[in-house]
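Hi D.,

Good news: the full-assembly prediction came through. Inputs first.
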Amino acid sequence: MEFKQVIGLRRSIRYYQPYRPVEREKVQIVLEAARLSSRAVNADFVQAIVVDRDALPAEDRESLKTPTTTAQLDLAPVWIFWLIDPTAPRIGQSSLKQLVDVGALTPSHGWSHAYVENVVWPQVLQPILADGGTAALVAAVEAGLAINQALLAAVDEGLGTQLTALNAAHASRILGIPEHLIPIWIQLLGYSAEHIEAGGQRPRSPFEQIYFDGRYGTPYERDEEVVERLRADGMLMTEAPYPWRKEELRALSRMFGLPE
Amino acid sequence: MTTADSLAGQETVGVWLRAYDAQWNVRQSDGETRAKLEVLARFCGACGRQPDELVAWLFRPTPEGPRIRLKRRREVMALIDRFEAENGGRAAGNTVRSFLIHNGVALSAPPLR
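Then the structure:
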C-alpha cells in the first residue's frame, strides 16, 4: 500500500473477525516497524509482549478490561502489550558513543565521545533519570513514536488495529512484567469485521486552528491544491460518518450479540 | 410488583428510549417499546430496584460530577448475565444493558463467537 494511503486508512477498529487468526509474520512486521522508529538516545524506551487472546484464561482476560475496554478485547485475536521504560536512557553513555562511531552523530554537529561523557551524560541524561516525572514523559513520547509505526504497519498488512486501555496492575501481575516497565496500551490486531474505512475519517480540528506560521496564532494557510492532491492519493478521505455507518454498527452489534 | 406500565414514569426509562432512537435514527413502535419495558420490568423485579433507583445506585456524587461505582457495576453485570441465562437469552440481557448504557453506565456483553 502507498504510504499516504496507509495514513489515510488508519482507523481505530473495534470489531474484529474473532475466528480469523493473524499470521505470525504479520505480527513480526508490526514489531519490526516499531523497532525502527525515531528514538532519543537510541534507547529502548518501549518493549512489547505479544499475547494470543485465547491463550489467556477467561478470568485474566476479564481482569484486564476497564469500563471503556470491553468487547474489542474479546474480538481481537492478538494483543500486543506495549510497555514503556522510563529508565531506558541509562544506556545513554554507550548508545550515544555508538551513534558517534557509526556516523549518525557527527563532529560537524559538535558530537564526540568526550561530549557524551562530560556533558550529555552528567548534565542531560542523569538529571532526566533522576526525575521520575520527566523520565516518564520522555519515555511516553518515544514510545508513542514506536507504537504509531506499529499501527501503520498493521494497516499496511491489511489488518485492523486499535490501541485500547488496560488495567496495568493486572497486566503486570498476569504477564510477569518487571517493576520498572509500565504497561501503557494494548494494541489489538485482527482482521476487521467492519469496513476498513470504519465509517470515514474521524473529525479533526480545522488545519489552520492547530498549525501556525511563524508565530503562535497566525494560521498556517492550507493550500487547497495540496488538499486535492492528498485526496487523490488517498490520504485525505471522506469524513465520518458515512451515511450507512449506523446501519453497519447495528448489524455488527446484532451479529456479535452486543448491546445497542 | 414491577410492570411495564409502572416504568413509564421513570426518568431513566425516558432517557433510554429517547437516546436509543436518537442513536439509531429510529422511532420505535409502541409494541417494540412495550416489549423492552416488559423485559426491563422483569429485571427490576429480579434485582429489587426500580430503574431510577438502579441507575442512582450505580453512581457516586462527587464535586466533579457523578462517578461510576465499579464494584456495583460488576455486580449488576453479573446479575444481567444470570438474568440473560434464565430469562430469554441474549436479547433480554442486551435490553437491560442498553438501558444502562444509554444512562451512562459503560458496559458490554461477551461477543458471540
